[in-house]
Amino acid sequence: MTQEELNKKIQEQxxxxxxxxxxxxxxxxxxxxxxxxxxxxxxxxxxKYETYDILADPALRAGMKTxxxxxxxxxxxxxxxxxxxCDIVTSLHQNGELKKLFVEKELLSA
Length: 110
Fold this sequence. Notes:
Blueprint: H1 3-16, E1 19-23, H2 33-45, E2 50-53, H3 58-68, E3 75-78, E4 81-84, H4 86-94, H5 97-104
Parallel strand pairs: 1-2
Antiparallel strand pairs: 1-3, 3-4
């Protein structure tokens, strides 16, 4: 699969779901501590989100790094916009900005 085809596939996923977490493993069985932490935060907030296991799809894993220009996982997207990885999501959660973002994007009520 070419990068162009991967970009199209990723864009389709982003168009389908308002909140997506590209991660190692899935929400039930995260395969790394960073992914587990972001799942824990999203579950605490109570937001509806989709996950994609980048370990199950090596082409997606490689393509995501180019698509997002972000070298690590997990990667959280909200309405097609890359929010960041574990450190950024954790920081945003701790200072209340992540929940505020979901409210502003009309994904969560205040």
